[in-house]
C-alpha cells in the first residue's frame, strides 16, 4: 500500500471529516438539511433558503422552530430537534420506520410536512415511557426480544401503540371476515395484517407478533 | 425537493382561489402521494395550499338515503364508519385492502381519488414518459409492463389508476362534488371524472386548475350483496394486479341485477357495463359468470409483460361474482 495518496477525489479521511462537521452543526441546532439536493440548491442561490417559524408540540413539550417549508416531520424531529428515535428507512412511506403518533393516530412522519402539524399533539418513541416505566408495548418488545438490529423497532412500537387503539375502537382490517362486526379479536393473522406497514429487514416478525399479542392481552 | 411556499387554507373558497391564482400552486391534503412525488421532483409546485384542516371531514346522511363523505375524511375513518361497514361493505373492504394503517390514517378521500400512477417509468426521471413529460414517449410500451393496463390504453400511455377505493366507488355510482374559485359548485359522476389517456395522458381528470373536491356522495346502497376482491404480489401492502368490486342482486336462483367495477386494468376504475348486461336475468351459475367475465375483457389488449392480467381478471371476476351471488 502506498503511503501517500495522490488521487484528487475525496479520501476516506476527508469524507469522515465532512461527516463530523455536519454532526457539529446539527448539535449546535443550526438548521442544516442533510439532503444533498437541498445543499446544492442552497449553495447555488445567493439568497438563503427561506424559512418559516412554527411551533410544534412534541412529547408534551412546546418547541419553537424556524424551518424550511420543505422539512418533513421526520427531518424536523431527527435533524432539528435531536429526537433521533424515529428512523428513516425509505423516506417514501414504504417501511414504517418513521412511524409516530399524531393526536394518538399512527402516521408515517416521512410523508408529511412539519408545517402541517402546528397545533397537533405529536408523540415519538421517546415520549412513550413514563419516567423510568416503559410503555407496556415497549416492555413487551424487550420481554419477547422483538428485534434483532433494532432499526425498525421505534416504528414498530409506535405503530403497535396506534394499532391497539384502532382495534380497541373496533376498526376492522383486511383480515377480518366480517367488516360490519362490532368488535375484533386480535388473532395473529389480524396482528400481521394490521402491522404490514412496518417492514423488518431482520425478519424478527415472530417475536414482534408475540410482543404485540402480549401487550394486547395485557391492555 | 424544489423550494416552495406554504399556506394553510382558511376556507374551501379561499383555497380554490389561492390555487387558481398561481399556475404553479397545488392543494396538499394528506400529502402521502404529493410529497412522495415532490421528493423525486416529479411534482414541482412552487406554492402549497394546505387543505387538510378544512372542516370537510364529516360523513353525513343524505335525503336520498345515501352518505355524503367530506373530501377530508381520512381513508381509515371512512373504512371504520359503522354506516359504511354495514351499508357499503365493499367500500370498507377496498379501503382496507389499500396501503397501510399509517397511510390510511393520513390519506384523504379526495387525495385517494387523485393519486397518480405507480408506473415505474413515471417515477424514473431518466426514462421517457408522456405523462410526466409531454411528447417524450412511453418507456412502458416496450419495457417492464406487468403492472400496466389492458383496457382503455393508448399508444401514448398504458398506465393504470392505482386506487382501490375508487373502484368500489365506481361500482356504487358515487358522485364527486367540487367547488371552484368563484364559489360555483358542480357534481361529476365518478364514471366521467377520470380520463382515459388518448393522446394526452398528463390530463388525468376533468378538474380545472383550482377546482377543489369538496365531497363524494354515495347514493343509497343498491340491492344485493357487495364483495371487493384484490389480487396482488404479496398478501398485504401492495398495489393491485387486478381487483373486482361486485354487487349481485338475486331472486331465487336468478340474477336480477349486477354492478361490476375493475381495478388495476385501466387508467380509471373500469365499469364492466357489458358484463352487467350479460348477467341481468341470467341464472346464477358459473356459466353466466364466465360469460360475464368474457364480455368484460372482450376488448382487452396485453403488452407482453401484462398478458397474464387478462385471464387473471376473468378468473377474479368469476370468483368475485360467485361470492357475491352465494349468500345474497
Ligand atoms: C407505500 C404506499 C402504498 C400504497 N398502497 C396503496 C394501495 O394499495 N391502494 C391504494 O389505493 N392506494 C395506495 N397508496 C396510495 C394512497 O392511497 C394515496 O397516497 C393517498 O390516498 C393520497 O391521499 P392524500 O390525501 O395523501 O393525497 P395528497 O398527496 O395530499 O394529494 C394527492 C393529489 O390530489 C390533489 N388533491 C388532494 N385533495 C384535493 C382536493 N380536495 N381537491 C383537488 N385536488 C386535491 C393534490 O393536489 C395532489 O395532486 C399507497 C401509497 C403509498 C405511499
Ligand atoms: S405508461 Fe404512461 S406513465 Fe408509464 S411510462 Fe408510459 S406514458 Fe409514462
Ligand atoms: S421512512 Fe417513512 S415509511 Fe420508510
Ligand atoms: S430488527 Fe432489524 S430491521 Fe427490524
Q: What's the total helix number of chain B?
A: 12
Task: Assign an overall shape of chain A.
Answer: globular
Classified in CATH, the superfamily of the domain at 225-325 in chain B is: CO dehydrogenase flavoprotein, C-terminal domain
The beta-strand count of chain B equals 12
Q: How does the overall form of chain B come out from the CA principal axes?
A: globular
What structural class should be given to the helix and strand makeup of chain B? alpha+beta
Number of domains of chain A: 3
CATH class of the domain at 225-325 in chain B: Alpha Beta
Number of strands of chain A: 5
- Helix/strand order of chain A: HHEEHEEEHHHH
The rounded distance between the terminal residues' Cα atoms of chain A is 61 Å
Main-sheet strand order of chain B equals 4-5-8-6-7
CATH architecture of the domain at 225-325 in chain B: 2-Layer Sandwich
CATH topology of the domain at 225-325 in chain B: Enolase-like, domain 1
Number of helices of chain A: 7
Predict the CATH topology of the largest domain in chain A: DNA polymerase, domain 1
How much of the residues of chain A is beta strand, in percent?
5-15%
Report the oligomer. Answer: heterodimer
Q: Any idea of the CATH class of the largest domain in chain A?
A: Mainly Alpha
Organism (chain A): Mesorhizobium mediterraneum
Keywords (chain A): 2Fe-2S, Iron, Iron-sulfur, Metal-binding, Oxidoreductase
Protein name (chain A): Aldehyde dehydrogenase iron-sulfur subunit
Domain 2Fe-2S ferredoxin-type (chain A): 52-128
Short summary:
By secondary structure, chain A is an alpha+beta fold. Chain A has seven helices and five strands.
Pick out its properties.
heterodimer; A: 219 residues; alpha+beta; Ubiquitin-like (UB roll); 3 domains; 5 strands; 11% strand; B: 328 residues; Enolase-like, domain 1; five-stranded antiparallel beta sheet; four-stranded antiparallel beta sheet; 12 helices; 28% helix; 21% strand; globular; binds flavin-adenine dinucleotide; binds iron/sulfur cluster; FAD (chain B); Xanthine dehydrogenase (chain B)
Amino acid at each position: 500500500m502506498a503511503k501517500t495518496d495522490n488521487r484528487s477525489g475525496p479520501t476516506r479521511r476527508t469524507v469522515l471529516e465532512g461527516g463530523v462537521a455536519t454532526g457539529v452543526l446539527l448539535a449546535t441546532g443550526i438548521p442544516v438539511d442533510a439532503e444533498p439536493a437541498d445543499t446544492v440548491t442552497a449553495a447555488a442561490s445567493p439568497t438563503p433558503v427561506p424559512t418559516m417559524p412554527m411551533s410544534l408540540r412534541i412529547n408534551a413539550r412546546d418547541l419553537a422552530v424556524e424551518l424550511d417549508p420543505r422539512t418533513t416531520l421526520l427531518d424536523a424531529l431527527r435533524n432539528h430537534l435531536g429526537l433521533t428515535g424515529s428512523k428513516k428507512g425509505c423516506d417514501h412511506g414504504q417501511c414504517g420506520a418513521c412511524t409516530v403518533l399524531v393526536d394518538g393516530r399512527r402516521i408515517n412522519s416521512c410523508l408529511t410536512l412539519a408545517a402541517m402539524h402546528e397545533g397537533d399533539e405529536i408523540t415519538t418513541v421517546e415520549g412513550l415511557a413514563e419516567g423510568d416505566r416503559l410503555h407496556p408495548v415497549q416492555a413487551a418488545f424487550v420481554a419477547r426480544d422483538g428485534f434483532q438490529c433494532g432499526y425498525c423497532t421505534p416504528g414498530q412500537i409506535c405503530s403497535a401503540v396506534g394499532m391497539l387503539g384502532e382495534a380497541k375502537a373496533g376498526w376492522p382490517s383486511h383480515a377480518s371476515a366480517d367488516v360490519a362486526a362490532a368488535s375484533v379479536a386480535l388473532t395473529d393473522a389480524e396482528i400481521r395484517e394490521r402491522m404490514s406497514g412496518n417492514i423488518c429487514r431482520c425478519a424478527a416478525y415472530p417475536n414482534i407478533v408475540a410482543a404485540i399479542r402480549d401487550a394486547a392481552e395485557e391492555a | 425537493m424544489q423550494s416552495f411556499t406554504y399556506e394553510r387554507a382558511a376556507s374551501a373558497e379561499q383555497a380554490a382561489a389561492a390555487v387558481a391564482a398561481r399556475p404553479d400552486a397545488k392543494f396538499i391534503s394528506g400529502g402521502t402521494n404529493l410529497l412522495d412525488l415532490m421528493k423525486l421532483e416529479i411534482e414541482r409546485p412552487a406554492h402549497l395550499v394546505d387543505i387538510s384542516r378544512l372542516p370537510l371531514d364529516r360523513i353525513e346522511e343524505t335525503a336520498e338515503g345515501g352518505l355524503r363523505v367530506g373530501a377530508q375524511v381520512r381513508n381509515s375513518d371512512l373504512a371504520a364508519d359503522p354506516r359504511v361497514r354495514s351499508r357499503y361493505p365493499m367500500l370498507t373492504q377496498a379501503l382496507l385492502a389499500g396501503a397501510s394503517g399509517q397511510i390510511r390514517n393520513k390519506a384523504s378521500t379526495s387525495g385517494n381519488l387523485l393519486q397518480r400512477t405507480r408506473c415505474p417509468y413515471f417515477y424514473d426521471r431518466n426514462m421517457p414518459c408522456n405523462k410526466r413529460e409531454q411528447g417524450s414517449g412511453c418507456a412502458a410500451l416496450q419495457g417492464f409492463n406487468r403492472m400496466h393496463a389492458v383496457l382503455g390504453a393508448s399508444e401514448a400511455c398504458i398506465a393504470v389508476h392505482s386506487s382501490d377505493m375508487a373502484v368500489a366507488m365506481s361500482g356504487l355510482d358515487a358522485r364527486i362534488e367540487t367547488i371552484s374559485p368563484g364559489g360555483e359548485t358542480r357534481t361529476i359522476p365518478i364514471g366521467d371524472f377520470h380520463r382515459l389517456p388518448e393522446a394526452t395522458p398528463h390530463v388525468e381528470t376533468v378538474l380545472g386548475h383550482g377546482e377543489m373536491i369538496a365531497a363524494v356522495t354515495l347514493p343509497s346502497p343498491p340491492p344485493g350483496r357487495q364483495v371487493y376482491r384484490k389480487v396482488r404480489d404479496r398478501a398485504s401492502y401492495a398495489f393491485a394486479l387486478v381487483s373486482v368490486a361486485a354487487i349481485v342482486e338475486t331472486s331465487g336462483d336468478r340474477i336480477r341485477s349486477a354492478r361490476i367495477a375493475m381495478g388495476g386494468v385501466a387508467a380509471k376504475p373500469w365499469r364492466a357495463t357489458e358484463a352487467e348486461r350479460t348477467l341481468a336475468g341470467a341464472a346464477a351459475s358459473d356459466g353466466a359468470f364466465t360469460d360475464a367475465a368474457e364480455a368484460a375483457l372482450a376488448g382487452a389488449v396485453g403488452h407482453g409483460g401484462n398478458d397474464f392480467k387478462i385471464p387473471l381478471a376473468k378468473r377474479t371476476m368469476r370468483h368475485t361474482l360467485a361470492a357475491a351471488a352465494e349468500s345474497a
